[in-house]
Known about the structure:
A hairpin with a 3-residue loop joins strand 1 and strand 2. The model has no long low-confidence stretch (mean pLDDT 97). This protein has one domain: HIT-like (HIT family, subunit A, 2-Layer Sandwich). It has a 5-stranded antiparallel beta sheet with strand order 1-2-3-5-4, with helices on one face. The chain contains 3 helices and 5 strands; from the N terminus they run H-E-E-E-H-E-H-E. By secondary structure, it is α+β, with helices and mostly antiparallel strands. Helices cover 24% and strands 21% of the residues. Zinc ion (ZN) binds next to helix 1. Guanosine-5'-monophosphate binds next to strand 2.
Amino acid sequence: xxxxxxxxxxxxxxxxxxxxxxxxxxxxxxxxxxxxxxxxxxxxxxxxxxxxxxxxxxxxxxxxxxxxxxxxxxxxxxxxxxxxxxxxxxxxxxxxxxxxxxxxxxxxxxxxxxx
Length: 115
Ligand code: 5GP
Ligand code: ZN
């Protein structure tokens, strides 16, 4: 399949891998927006959060349930931010569902400016 994250999961495109098991693949973002910025990707190709239904419950639950442990493994012991961009309005660039995990020593600031 012509999907950049499927290619990363298959090892056809190199990445700085953090963790892998039967459900998820975890790697550093190539263009970090914070001192620590990695992506948690389900191995199953799901285009976006707008395409999920109850058949994805196990995968999505698994992915989120792993997030805290993965964040701690990267030194994020004082909090972090998770982001899932969805579709055009959400600014999604890669159409294979992924969770951004962002953090570092200092507070990240507001997610969006309040209107
Ligand atoms: P989105 O905007 O879809 O939520 O985020 C896609 C993210 O994937 C971006 O933060 C971008 O830097 C990252 N990304 C895109 N291509 C690659 C790649 O080839 N390798 C890695 N490690 N990250 C990528
Ligand atoms: Zn994919």
